Amino acid sequence: MTIPAATRAQAQDLLDFIDASPSPWHAVQTCAARLETAGFSQLDEAERWALKAGDRRYVVRGGSSIIAFIVGSQPAATNGLRMIGAHTDSPGLRLKPKPAEDTAGMVRLGVEVYGGPILATFADRDLSLAGRVNVRVAGGFEPRLVRFDQPLLRLPNLAIHMNREVNENGLKFNKQTELPLLLGISEDGTKAEARFRQPIAAALGVDPGNLLTWELNAYDTQKGAFWGVDREFVANSQLDNLASCHAALSALLATGEPAATCLCAFFDHEEVGSESTTGAGGSFVADVVGRLAASAGLDSEDQRRMLAQSFFISADMAHGWHPNFPAAYEPCHHALVNAGPVIKSNANQRYSTSAETAARFMAICEKAGVPCQQYAHRTDLGCGSTIGPIVAARLGIPSVDVGSPMWAMHSIRESAGVLDHGHMIAALTTAFAD
Question: Hey, what domains does the chain have and what are their CATH numbers?
Answer without folding.
Answer: 5-90+237-433 (3.40.630.10), 92-220 (2.30.250.10)
